[in-house]
């Protein structure tokens, strides 16, 4: 895969070499992200950071990553503050904003909207999440986290057992992560969700075609024997009827007691965040906050490294970072 000048719209664009390339650039970004070194490699460059749907981590980490490379960030947040609210097309918005920026990161509530926007853009566009469709940069940082966490236990993505729990129908992060896992070998995947919120059949088919063992269950039972448990939030914003979302809230909690009962003592706990901390939901309890296997904040930190790597690669400066 050639990164320079490319849009990053879907994990379908990646093969295993491309993933490896981005992960090794991300490794090189660590001293810059942790302020031990400085670079101005993107001095004078502008990121258009367009978030038409709420975000904390993705929006801020895109901006932070760009700043850490020496570039500047122009933000648009919320549909109501953009001319999209007056009926302007994504194409026109892209044509205009792409002449103000060197690269654009974008989140939009509609599936396919970021790809539609990219058709009008004259600079690379990076998908920060489009509806229930994809969240490719989250999937890359999730996989990077899995690689790093498993390395501490002397194991690898190939051959691991991953348990994904919660709303697998609307959770775009697990769609993108599952597609990336198709490039690895002999992954054992247990999907835990109510049947109505199950992983789309098309993605289960992809996982099985890749030779992975996929087990779908509606409850945790016995020992899950998982290397990683990936909890997700009920994506209430994707339901047409909020009462429907309500009936699933709280069905898939993870707290210290449930963790000890169903998982190994070193099972790594992940969640893309935000976690819904309201008592009626609480899919990942605060009583796990001191558990060393809780990787959620290391996972969020890795978002900066991966997004720095993607900016460096799409703008073709990955070999120049240490020189400026
Ligand atoms: N994981 C994630 O996409 O978080 P935000 O919605 O805060 O960006």
What would you say this structure looks like, in words?
The structure is a single chain. The chain is an alpha/beta fold and 324 residues long. It has two domains: 11-134 and 301-323, Aspartate/ornithine carbamoyltransferase (Rossmann fold); 136-300, Rossmann fold. The chain has ten helices and nine strands. The chain has helices at 16-33, 57-68, 90-97, 113-120, 136-152, 172-181, 201-209, 242-246, 256-262, 296-314, and strands spanning 46-51, 72-77, 103-108, 125-130, 161-165, 188-192, 213-217, 228-231, 268-270. Strand 1 (46-51), helix 2 (57-68) and strand 2 (72-77) form a beta-alpha-beta unit. Phosphoric acid mono(formamide)ester binds next to helix 2. Phosphoric acid mono(formamide)ester is lined by residues 55-59, 129, 138, 272-274. GO terms for molecular function: amino acid binding; aspartate carbamoyltransferase activity. One of its GO terms (cellular component) is cytosol. InterPro entries: Asp/Orn_carbamoyltranf_P-bd (IPR006132), Asp/Orn_carbamoylTrfase (IPR006130), Asp/Orn_carbamoylTrfase_sf (IPR036901), Asp_carbamoyltransf (IPR002082), Asp_carbamoyltransf_Asp/Orn-bd (IPR006131).
Total tally of structural domains = 2
Our count of helices gives: 10
Q: Could you tell me the number of beta strands?
A: 9
The rounded Rg comes to 19 Å
Ligand set? phosphoric acid mono(formamide)ester
Strand content: 5-15%
Structural class: alpha/beta
Compressed to H and E, one letter per element, the order equals HEHEHEHEHEHEHEEHHEH
CATH class of the largest domain: Alpha Beta
Query: Which shape, going by the Cα principal axes?
Result: globular
Domain Aspartate/ornithine carbamoyltransferase Asp/Orn-binding: 159-313
Family: Belongs to the aspartate/ornithine carbamoyltransferase superfamily. ATCase family.
Function: Catalyzes the condensation of carbamoyl phosphate and aspartate to form carbamoyl aspartate and inorganic phosphate, the committed step in the de novo pyrimidine nucleotide biosynthesis pathway.
Protein name: Aspartate carbamoyltransferase
């Amino acid at each position: 895969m050639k990164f320079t000048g490319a849009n990053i719209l879907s994990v379908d664009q990646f093969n295993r070499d491309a993933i490896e390339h981005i992960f090794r650039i991300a490794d090189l970004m660590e001293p810059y992200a942790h302020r031990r070194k400085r670079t101005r490699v993107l001095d004078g460059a502008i990121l258009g950071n367009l978030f038409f749907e709420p975000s904390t981590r993705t929006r801020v980490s895109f901006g932070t990553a760009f700043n850490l490379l020496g570039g500047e960030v122009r933000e648009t947040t919320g549909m109501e503050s953009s001319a999209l609210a007056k009926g302007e097309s994504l194409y026109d918005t892209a044509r205009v904003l792409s002449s103000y920026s060197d690269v654009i990161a974008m989140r939009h509530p509609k599936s396919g909207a970021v790809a539609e926007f990219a058709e009008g853009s004259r600079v690379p566009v990076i998908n920060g999440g489009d509806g229930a469709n994809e969240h490719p940069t989250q999937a890359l940082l999730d996989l990077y986290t899995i690689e790093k966490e498993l390395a501490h236990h002397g194991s690898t993505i190939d051959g691991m057992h991953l348990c994904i729990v919660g709303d697998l129908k609307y959770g775009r992060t697990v769609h993108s992560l599952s597609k990336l896992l198709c490039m690895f070998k002999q992954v054992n995947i247990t999907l835990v969700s109510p049947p109505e919120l199950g992983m789309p059949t098309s993605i289960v088919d992809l996982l099985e075609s890749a030779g992975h063992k996929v087990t779908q269950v509606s409850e945790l039972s016995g020992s899950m024997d998982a290397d990683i448990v990936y909890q997700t939030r009920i994506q209430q914003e994707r339901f047409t009827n909020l009462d429907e979302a309500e009936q699933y809230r709280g069905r898939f909690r993870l707290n210290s007691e449930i963790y000890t009962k169903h998982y190994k003592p070193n099972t790594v706990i992940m969640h893309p965040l935000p976690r819904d901390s309201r008592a009626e939901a609480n899919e990942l309890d605060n009583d796990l906050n001191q558990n060393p296997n809780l990787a959620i904040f290391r996972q969020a930190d890795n978002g900066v490294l991966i997004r720095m790597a993607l900016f460096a690669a799409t703008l073709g400066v990955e070999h120049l970072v240490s020189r400026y």
